């Protein structure tokens, strides 16, 4: 252990060094740099379906957060060309047709652009685990691992916020975590759902508001 380093920081250091040692492409070491202070990136993906193994990404959007501001002008929007056909069912969800994504980027090229946009900033999202599973599936052949950045799950933050408000005898009550419910309850503007940029911006707005509410106790 390095002198003066706490056990927690020592474990984080070891994990970072282990990941860097096994990194498949040295061009992406920057993702392990110290993140800029008070900056995050909210992201969202639209996909051909909800099966991580068989479905594919068809659009990616990301937006930067600086302190308590959502930097909507600092955003990334990418269409991604899938290998398989886009089903009519998925078109009804996200309104992206076969011809819309036909000229999209190759998945690996899109994710390289995404990684450079994110840098080492922590990630923000609503049910981010699914988006990152879809992203990491493409990244593993390139990096030998998925995105390493710290994650901030908006639905978990909202759950903590609502749970703190419940009296003890009601703490087994189910909390509605639907995106529309969350946004309405936080008095935030609702954009059309199942659009990657709209969902990323809404997640960013909710993150900023929830950080303030949780910090205030």
Note down, in words, how this protein is organized.
The chain has 217 residues and is an alpha/beta fold. It is built from eight helices and five strands; from the N terminus they run H-E-E-E-H-H-H-E-H-E-H-H-H. Helix 5 (128-143) links the parallel strand 4 and strand 5 (151-153). The protein starts with 6 loop residues before the first helix and ends with a helix.
Radius of gyration: 19 Å
Name the CATH architecture. Answer: 2-Layer Sandwich
Overall 3D shape:
globular
CATH class: Alpha Beta
The total number of structural domains is 1
CATH fold topology: Nucleotidyltransferase, domain 5
- Work out the strand percent: 15-25%
What is the SS-derived class?
alpha/beta
Produce a short descriptive summary.
By secondary structure, this protein is of the alpha/beta class. It has helices at 7-21, 88-94, 98-101, 107-118, 128-143, 154-165, 179-185, 196-216, and strands spanning 39-47, 57-66, 69-79, 123-125, 151-153.
Write the SSE topology.
Elements: H1 7-21, E1 39-47, E2 57-66, E3 69-79, H2 88-94, H3 98-101, H4 107-118, E4 123-125, H5 128-143, E5 151-153, H6 154-165, H7 179-185, H8 196-216
Parallel strand pairs: 1-4, 4-5
Antiparallel strand pairs: 1-2, 2-3
Helix pairs in contact: 6-8
